[in-house]
Amino acid sequence: MNEAGKVICKLELGIGTISFYHPHSNSLPGDLLRKLAEEISNFGNNPAVKVIVLRSEGEQTFCAGASFDELISLKDFETGKEFFSGFAHVINAIRTAPKFIIARVQGKAVGGGVGIACAADYTIAMDTAAVKLSELAVGIGPFVVGPAVERKIGKAAFTSLAINATTWRDANWAKNVGMYADVHATIANLDEAVNSLAQKLAASNPDAMAELKKIAWKGTENWDTLLIERAGISGQLVLSEFTINAIQQFKKKS
Fold first, then answer.
1. How confident is the model at residue 197 (pLDDT cuts 50, 70, 90)?
2. In angstroms, rounded to a whole number, what is the distance separating the alpha carbons of residues 245 and 242?
3. What's phi and psi for 97, nearest 5 deg?
4. Is 234 part of a structural domain of the chain?
5. Which conformational region is residue 18 in: left (phi greater than 0), alpha (psi within -120 to 50 degrees), or beta?
6. What is the pLDDT of residues 21-37, one digit of tens each?
7. Given a cut of 80, is residue 74 above it in pLDDT?
8. Which of 36, 37, 89, 185 is 20 to 30 A removed from 28 (C-alpha atoms)?
9. What is the DSSP letter of 150?
10. Edge-to-edge order in the sheet of strand 61-63
């Protein structure tokens, strides 16, 4: 696990909580992505876990997406594909876990963070949790997270978000298109809503929930291969001179 980041897991009264943290706005380098996917799968296979809550630490940013430091260090196609496959593995772990996953989005979500928020089965957010798919602005594209985003909000809203890659959409926009199920004005209200739903689900029939999740995700059975293929597209584009220069400019601004 990355020395500057962490993934923390807690199980209490049937509720499995997975928290991730990175000092750079909760961005996700490859090792944290691997750990996150692993822990989601572990909780999914643990019969003591009835429902999973996925969250990040802090109050400002839910997830800033891919680690720019790692992106500019990628030197060949295979390492690029492997890095972007990390987001594929997280999304597929969420998809295949036979438990409902509630995402607690307390702040802004960018790129891969939007993908995680959309992949969750039920997402509850703060009213400050604006979203942006910034990949095209750095010469890549939301190829890996795209299927998860499109599944949740539809092709038209996904395309609008992907094309206008430098514009933030506010939490109300995200709720209106179906990305967020609920939006709250305070952290206290957000946590109350997350905990209330988690407790209700923890007391529900696990077999019924597993069957309902299968139905909700019907038609995504090819994602094990599709998302890895999409990772290859990003892995190739990230090596281009355009993308390298664009990422370096973004880093100077941040």
1. very high
2. 5
3. -65, 130
4. no
5. beta
6. 999 999 999 999 999 99
7. yes
8. 185
9. H
10. 61-63, 108-110, 131-132
Q: How many CA atoms lie within 13 A of 117 on its CB side?
A: 35
| 3-state class (DSSP) for residue 111 | coil
Q: Which two tokens stand for residue 54?
A: 């996925």
Look at the pTM and tell me if it is higher than 0.70: yes
* In a domain? residue 249: no
Q: How many domains does the chain have?
A: 1
Q: Does a structural domain hold residue 226?
A: no
> Domain of 84: which CATH number?
3.90.226.10
Please check whether residue 207 lies inside any domain of the structure. no
In this prediction, residue 253 has a pLDDT band, given cuts at 50, 70 and 90, of low
Question: CA 175, CA 180: separation in Å to the nearest integer?
Answer: 4
CB 107 within 8 A of CB 129: yes
Neighbours of 218 (CB within 10 A): 8
